[in-house]
Amino acid sequence: MDPFASPHNLDKQLLALLGEASSNLCDWLSDSGSQGPIPDSFDLPEVSPSKEGVSNKVLLKELNLLMNGAYRPSHPGALAHLDPPPLSASIVGELICAGLNNNLLAQELSPSFSSLERKLCKWFCEKLGLGDLSGGVAASGGSLSNLMALVMARNITGLESDPSAVFFASDDCHVSLSKAVRIMGLTQDSFKKIPTDEKGKLNVSCLYSIFKKIKSEGKKCFAVVATAGTTVRGAIDPLAEIAEFCQKENIWLHVDGAIGGIYGLSTTTSELLKGIGSADSITVNPQKLLGIAKTSSLLLVADKNNLSSTFSTGLPYAEPLLENEFHGGELGIQGTRSAESLKLWIGLRQLGEEGIEKILLESIKRRCYLESIIDPLNFEIISGPLHLLALSPKNQSPSKASCWSKETRNFLLKNKFMLSRPMYGDRYYLKAVMGNPNTKFEDLKQLAYLLNNSII
Ligand SMILES: *Cc1c(COP(=O)(O)O)cnc(C)c1O
Q: pLDDT-based confidence at 456, cuts 50/70/90?
């Protein structure tokens, strides 16, 4: 078989290969319910290429081995992380994206997709209330979006060569910010953590007092990062109050909405994000709840010129664009990028406004339901307004909570429920993420029964 499709004739072998692979994938998806979220064991195929290439039949067989060892996000008990099953249209988007193999680096390598990405980012910006100058860029994951935001904030505020400049985020912020500190050549001392309140939200009066102290030490601040949807409990920092602080002190506001930003797409849930439109930049990860196939993250900015003035170096090997227009590769850290906006666009088109709203609302409903049927006498439950919930036994030492979390996680896995086991404060919790549309109330009843009986 010619390993490349003919540009002149219909490639029947490719057609057959795609057909069989698609059929195997559909079987795998439909079989997920009868398996567990993760396999008990798996075999790997031969890893290194053999002397002669193998046949399609062998390829498909080897592929099956890997599929059998894969995590199954479609299983109704797959509730551990922010990894929902993929939307059907988004699977197709990913396939077509690979087939077209365009490159977002430069307009000439992705004519329609460069335009699509700009327009789609603009649509997100408008939904979240960013103004007329807004725009954005896609990135391979929220960690990268957050890094680009911090680099941009430091650059635009003119503090890129001030080693004492600091930024703020809450104690419950995402670990990607600590990575950004290392990459940006900052010291951990530049990263000022602000305590959270009892609901896991950044405490704004602490922000004021810590900022005052920093200022009195003669240090400058280049950003505040507010989290819209924290990773363990889904808390949303008080965005409007933080925005007011940032406006008053003239500081860049980045909202890490990797989890919660998506709730801004529906007017029924956008209330939760009041104030987000005042941000200078926002991270949104459609991969985390909407079911856009990984990876799908956007960095949205209030003034799109800030992206180009931070990252544009000129692309001497690509045709120049009109003045004030930039190639994708000049808007962020990544050079070559796939046309990820294709699977996002097609997923959103498949869902429609009603489908999007349904996913958002039902995720919250499932969390509320589970919360209502867990025994409040035996458990401390921490959650926010979104679709995440974590719990730990009441009145137990951290070491007992640790044993409980380990044993119960394994016990639940045997019963085909997968929860995660984050450390929060001084102890371990079990965390359930209600982003899986295949999880029904009946499943949650069963889960609550198992949890309620896990303490004797
Ligand atoms: C998941 C997450 C990120 C990082 O996103 P990746 O796509 O995993 O890189 C950043 N911030 C928050 C709050 C997250 O939950």
A: low
